[in-house]
Amino acid sequence: MSRIVEVRGLRYAWEDGTEALRGVDFDLEAGQTVALLGANGSGKTTFALHLNGLLKASAGSIQIDTLVLNDKSLPVIRRKVGLVFQDSDNQLFMPTVLEDVAFAPLTAGLTSAQATEKAMAALRQVDMEAKAHKAPWHLSSGEKKRVAIAGILASDPSLLVLDEPTTFLDPPGQRSLAALLADLPQAKILITHDMTFARALTKEAVFFQEGKIAARGPLDEVITRFDWY
Fold it and tell me: Domain with 187 in it: what CATH number?
């Protein structure tokens, strides 16, 4: 396996000096899935936002697919690392589903025809091709999540980072999303409090505590160790 993520000594402090990350080391192999667990404020999402440069580290290094994250590599890395936000409404902003999914390929320099082809292929992957010409705000929460994922897939990412992906989804929607994600070949980082969802996709967990990784290992062992039910 090739390493898709390599993080060493990652530190980050908020403007008031509060340390959010306190020396995080993390590796992920291509195609691997891991769940990030821990209390709210423990550093999980802050860590994830560093992986595609939405936050800039105070210290440490990040490599994505052998590329060192810096100002020069940032545009390429943002195509490689797809961040799916907790609230899909934060990612859907164009008049139609197709335009939304085609947005990233267009900004990457593809022609309109090429971007449309990419977008339709991504929509087929998430079984949303039939909704291509619908307005995003007319979709259900589960459909919005699928379109948000399609918008990421249209950039051919190597890594999907999903922040609380089951938020706003009913149980059938959660099961449907888990099945969709299980079929995607990309490496995945799942930030979740939903242990049923985590178990459906991975057997490995990382536990964040006060800005550090307190443990990494088999999911059920980590859950038991930290009483994380």
Answer: 3.40.50.300
Q: What angle do CA 54, 85, 202 make, to 5 degrees?
A: 105
3-state secondary structure of 5: strand
Q: Which domain holds residue 83?
A: 3-225
Backbone phi and psi for residue 22, each to the nearest 5 degrees, phi listed first:
-130, 55
Q: Which residues of 112-139 are buried (b: 16+ CB within 10 A; e: fewer)?
A: eeebbebbbebbebbebbebbebebeeb
Residue 101 Ramachandran class (φ > 0 left, ψ -120 to 50 alpha, else beta): alpha
The two three-digit tokens of residue 107, written as one number: 């900004």
pLDDT tens for 177-208 read: 999 999 999 999 999 999 999 999 999 999 99
